[in-house]
Specification:
The complex is a heterodimer of chains A (339) and B (396). Chain A has 339 residues and is an alpha/beta fold. Chain A folds into 2 domains: 207 residues, Periplasmic binding protein-like II (D-Maltodextrin-Binding Protein, domain 2), CATH 3.40.190.10; 96 residues, 3-Layer(aba) Sandwich (D-Maltodextrin-Binding Protein, domain 2), CATH 3.40.190. Chain A is built from 13 helices and 14 strands. In chain A, α6 links the parallel β9 and β10. The radius of gyration of chain A is 21 Å and the shape is globular. With 396 residues, chain B is of the alpha+beta class. In chain B, a hairpin with a 2-residue loop joins β6 and β7. Chain B folds into 2 domains: 51 residues; 241 residues, MetI-like (MetI-like fold, Orthogonal Bundle), CATH 1.10.3720.10. The mean pLDDT of chain B is 87. Chain B has a 4-stranded antiparallel sheet with strand order 1-2-3-8. Helices cover 67% and strands 7% of the residues of chain B. Classes of the chains: A alpha/beta (339), B alpha+beta (396).
Chain lengths: 339, 396
């Protein structure tokens, strides 16, 4: 099955390569077909998760919706492709999806050898460990000899190896394709601990039959800047995705929310007027409607709202802003100005 | 260019056009050239486009450090090994589960297939129920069943089921004592080799004698004595040069000993049980394909049921059984790639999974993986065809 899927993708890649030399122009393609095809996870609470009605929600999903809102003025013009960690890059390379927003870590290798570019960071994360409470472990340094459940094809796999190697500890990795399989393995006691990005650990922990039976250790062993990815060599589309993200950050900084955005339109503040597309460069540089940023906030919300409803206090995960607070609030989320 | 060749040939010998053989060759050359050109074009174009999009190509990545751990490896492997080595680790794991799977599926399949024809009503019906259940449930579900159902039932490492402080069973696997060979064990191996040769010679002699005189010599117990008795004697004489490495609980898990991981066990159970159901039907069909007259004739000669089965039925049934059996073996090898669903580190999980993702070189990795499955299948096919030719009826 998996092999078949990869095969189809690769045949697609080969055929696509044969058929067209017109690699660029994703924005035009998207405008023509009328929706954005967005690659997301197969289900990870807070990031991309289908609810019981089949509507996708999450911070990664909202990044896609923001792009759709900027282009079409309608956040619903997105189609989602659920992908495992292993399938994601091939799907983007082959043109099966227009953008990948699937809590993917930005690394040098991925940026330079996959023919892909990271358009920004929508969540600053770090890798952590979740262990069974009954083991009585207080720190990751006590984990020598442990068996670890882990998702295949992730940077997590590499960080884990580095961490144990540098601390001269041994471990046994059990690698699963999907993150819910890692949870099943953890619950079935196949492994002593589960490792993943901290945000995911909280999401996975509430999926456990008894969340109280597991604890998340305090150590964060890596930097995991997660963000949307696009194909390399298509700068126009790259700019659209990047600035859709920046628009949400700028909106939060300026205090524009989905509720007050219509009132703010009447503001005299030149910064806000530029944001609304009433002054300055407007949408022409991005080849988008002048109201692109307004549409994002109106239909999706600013970064703070998106964070809060998906992973923050307004969600079951209740993750603090931490590094993801705006730079002006002590975090590192910082967007260049719209002018 | 093939067209040019055709034109240059045409005026020289016009009669060639009327020669169907020559015409056929020309057309075949044209088709072959067209197909080759098409494939070369696709490969070149793919490479060119991948390069222009900044996707790395080539096989250089195989020499880079992998940096990730693998659950089970039959060869030396650690995080600083290369991606090339992950290929061999995955390949060997695939071969291991396939070989074991084929072995158990064959034994189980033959047993059930024969049981299906038993005159005992209960045995026959039980075999039928087995076949109908296991061949009608998707294999992936069966793998999940063995993995999650069986895993959950087993205790954790600290409450392991324990047999004589040597064998431990828990949800991390089955731990057996591992034999450690010391100096002088070579003698035992030598003696074992001699015993094997002696057994083969004896079997041949017995067969020739039976064919010549009709006298039966029961080789079973004599072989057993040769194969077990002689090496055992050598082992004792040389002063028992072997010790056992027993697994022990250290920290979270057992260390040392010979561990069988539950992923391997679950995959092996599922593959053998599933494939055995198909093999059983093939065996039943093969046996029923031997005309009843053969059995009656054998009985009329005064043979008892066991020799009838061994000497009359099975040799003839094998001719019918082997070809479909081959395709079941091929299915089993290919089905072993479902391992990735439960985290058994086979070729697809390790190489076409993690390695592909870490390097991003999908085309190269998938091409290598496909080549492996193709070669494995062709090799199995070749072996089975050879075996089939040997088993075919030699008409006298």
């Amino acid at each position: 099955m998996k092999l078949l899927k990869s095969l189809t993708a690769i045949t697609g890649l080969a055929l696509l390569a044969a058929a067209s030399n017109v690699a660029a122009g994703t924005l035009d393609d998207v405008k023509k077909k009328g929706f954005v095809q967005c690659g997301v996870t197969t289900g990870l609470a807070g990031f991309s998760f289908p609810d019981e009605k089949g509507n996708w929600t999450g911070i990664d999903v909202d990044t896609c919706r923001a792009v759709a809102a900027a282009i079409f003025g309608d956040a619903k013009k997105v189609k989602f492709s659920p992908l495992t960690a292993k399938e994601r890059f091939t799907a983007l390379q082959s043109g099966e999806i227009d953008m990948l927003s699937r809590n993917t870590t930005w690394t040098l290798t991925r940026d330079t050898s996959l023919g892909l570019n990271f358009a920004g960071v929508n969540y600053y994360d770090g890798q952590g460990f979740m262990v069974k409470k009954e083991l009585g472990v207080k720190s990751a340094k006590e984990l020598d000899g442990a068996t670890v459940c882990i998702q295949a094809g992730t940077t997590t796999e590499l960080n884990l190896a580095d961490y144990f190697r540098s601390n001269k500890m041994k471990y046994t990795p059990i690698t699963f394709d999907k993150s819910d399989e890692t949870v099943k393995g953890f619950e079935a006691n196949r492994c002593d601990m589960l490792t993943s990005d901290q945000s995911q650990l909280y999401a996975l922990r509430i999926q456990l039959a008894d969340p109280g039976s597991a604890i998340v250790l305090p150590e964060v062993i890596s930097k995991e800047p997660l963000g949307p990815v696009v194909r390399q060599g298509d700068d126009e589309w790259f700019n659209v995705v990047r600035w859709a993200l920046y628009a949400m950050l700028n909106a939060e900084e300026m205090g524009i929310t989905s509720k007050n955005v219509d009132n703010m339109k009447k503001s005299e503040d030149p910064g806000i007027r530029r944001f609304m597309g009433l002054e300055g460069i407007k949408g022409s540089g991005l080849k988008l409607p002048d109201e692109w940023a307004y549409n994002i906030v109106k239909h999706v919300g600013n970064y703070g709202e998106v964070f809060d409803r998906n992973v923050g206090q307004g969600s079951p995960l209740k993750i603090g802003r931490g590094l993801n607070a705006l730079w002006s609030d002590g975090g590192i989320q910082y967007a260049p100005p719209i002018r | 260019m093939a067209v040019d060749e055709k034109e240059s040939l045409a005026p020289a010998k016009p009669s060639l056009w009327r020669d169907p053989n020559a015409r056929a060759i020309v057309f075949q050359v044209i088709v072959l050239a067209a197909v080759t050109l098409f494939i070369v074009f696709i490969i070149k174009n793919t490479l060119h486009n991948m390069e222009s999009r900044g996707i790395s190509t080539g096989f250089d990545f195989l020499g880079n450090e992998s940096g990730f751990g693998i659950l089970q490896s039959l060869i030396e492997y650690n995080e600083s090994s290369t991606y090339g080595r992950t290929f061999f680790v995955g390949l060997l794991n695939t071969l291991l589960v396939s070989a074991l799977g084929i072995f158990f599926a064959t034994i189980l399949g033959f047993a059930i297939g024969i049981a299906r024809l038993s005159r005992n009503w209960l045995v026959a019906k039980l075999a039928m129920v087995y076949i109908e259940i296991f061949r009608n449930i998707p294999l992936l579900l069966q793998i999940f069943f063995w993995y999650f159902a069986v895993l959950r039932a087993l205790p954790g490492p600290r409450q392991s089921l324990n047999v004589g402080d040597a064998v431990f069973l828990n949800n991390r696997g089955l731990y057996l004592p591992r034999p450690v060979f010391e100096d002088g064990f070579g003698l035992v191996l030598w003696v074992l080799g001699v015993a094997i040769i002696a057994t083969m010679v004896m079997t041949r002699w017995a067969k020739r004698r039976r064919e010549a005189s009709g006298k039966v010599f029961h080789t079973f117990y004599a072989s057993l004595a040769l194969l077990i008795g002689l090496p055992l004697l050598a082992f004792l004489i040389s002063g028992a040069p072997m010790s056992w490495d027993v697994a022990a609980l250290k920290g979270f898990n057992f260390r040392g000993g010979l561990g069988v991981i539950p992923e391997l066990a679950a995959l092996l159970f599922a593959l053998s049980i599933y494939t055995a159901a198909f093999i059983a039907e093939i065996v039943r069909a093969g046996i029923q394909g031997v005309t009843h007259g053969q059995t009656e004739a054998a009985r009329a000669l005064g043979l008892r049921p066991t020799p009838i089965l061994h000497l009359i039925i099975i040799p003839q049934a094998m001719r019918i059984i082997i070809p479909p059996l081959t395709s079941q073996y091929l299915n089993l090898i290919k089905n072993s790639s479902l391992a990735t669903a439960i985290g058994y580190p086979d070729l697809v999980a390790v190489f076409a999974g993690t390695t592909l993702n870490q390097t991003g070189q999908a085309v190269e990795v998938i091409a290598m993986t496909m080549a492996v499955y193709l070669s494995l299948s062709l090799l199995t096919s070749m072996f089975m065809n050879w075996f089939n030719a040997r088993m075919a009826l030699v008409e006298r």
